[in-house]
Amino acid sequence: MADNIIPSFKAADLVIELSSTPKPKPEVIPFGTVFTDHMLTIEWNASEGWQAPHIKPFGNLSLHPATSSLHYAIQLYEGLKVYRGDDNQLRFFRPMLNLKRMSNTAKRACLPAFDQSQFLECIRRLVETDQDWVPHSDSASLYIRPTFIATEPALGLRKPGRALLYVILCQVGSYFKNKAEPLSMWADPKYTRAWKGGTGDCKMGGNYGCSLFPQYEAEEHGCQQALWLYGEDHQITEGGTMNLFLHWINEDGEEELATPPLDGIILPGVTRLSVLELTRKWGEFKVTERYLTMSQLCSALKQQRVKGMFGSGTASMICPIGHIVYQGEKLHIPCQDKNSQLTQRLTKELTDIQYGRTPSDWTILL
Hints:
This protein is α+β, with helices and mostly antiparallel strands. It is built from 8 helices and 19 strands. Strands 1, 2, 3, 4, 5, 6, 7, 8, 9 and 19 form a 10-stranded mixed beta sheet that branches. β11 and β12 form a beta hairpin. α2 packs across α3. It is globular.
C-alpha cells in the first residue's frame, strides 16, 4: 500500500499509561533540561501503517545502532508552547501553523504523512495529562517538542520503512541568559546556513547541527549569535535560530519594517508571520518581505536611517539586536528608548494574546 493512502493514526485510539512516580517541579530551570512526567509516542511501519498513539511515562528511546536517523539525519522537529493565562486557562498559540510546517518538512524528509488535527488532539491530551507542569507565570510557559525520526534498522540511504513520531514537554522561561540586553551578532559570508534547493525552509535537525561551529566562532569574536548571509551580495537571511526584521527608513524615504522573503532558504516562522500580520493590521508604516543586503544596512546606518533590528522565534520571542560585527567593523544598531518601542509593543501584543489578556482566534483553549 502506498504511503499517501495509509490512514493516519486516530486520537480516539490513544492509550494512556500514567507514571507511578511523578517528578518534583523545580522553580528555576535552564532551557530544555527538565522534562515532564509523560511523553507521546506513535510508531509507523510501511507494512502496517500507523500504530495507536501512546502516552506513557517519560523515558529513554531504544534504537538499533544502524537506525537511519542517526546515520543519514532523516529526522525533524517542531517547537510550540502552551501558556497559562491570568484566568488559569491553558492556551496553544497558532499550533496548526507548526503542524502544517512539520507536515511539509516530513514530506521533504520522505517520512510518512499524518493527520494534523488528529496529532494536535493527541498533543492536547498529553498536555492535559501533564497540565500541572504549565507554569503559573506570564514570563514562562510549557514548551512542546514534537519530533519525527526514521527508525529503519539498516544501513543504506533509502526511504525509511519505519518511523517514530514522539512529543516531549518541558518548562521554559527566557531562551537567552540576559533577556534585557540587545543581542550581538557576527556576520561572516564564509558560512552559509541554507541555500536554494536545500532544506532551509524546513525544521530539520541537520540545519541546526551544522550551525554550531560558526556559533562558537561568533562567540570568539565577542558576539552571542551568528548572522547568516547568503550569496555574493551578502543577503541578510536569519540570525542564530531566528527570523530577522529591519525597521528603517528605506531608500525611497518610507518608514518600513522589512524581513527576507520565503524563497526556500528562510524558515517560515510562526512568530515571523504573527509580526507581519500584527504590523500590517496597525497600518502605521510599510511592511514588506524583501531582500536585504549588508551593503544596504551599512549605507542606512551611515545615513542614520535605521530605527532598529530584531529577531523573532518561538523560543526566543522578540529579541532586539544591539550590534553586528561585519568585515572587522562593529555596526551599532539603534535601540530607541533603551529596548525599542516597536519590540516592546510587539512583545506586549503577542504575550497579551498568548496569555489570554487579549481575545484572539490565534489561540486554542486546552
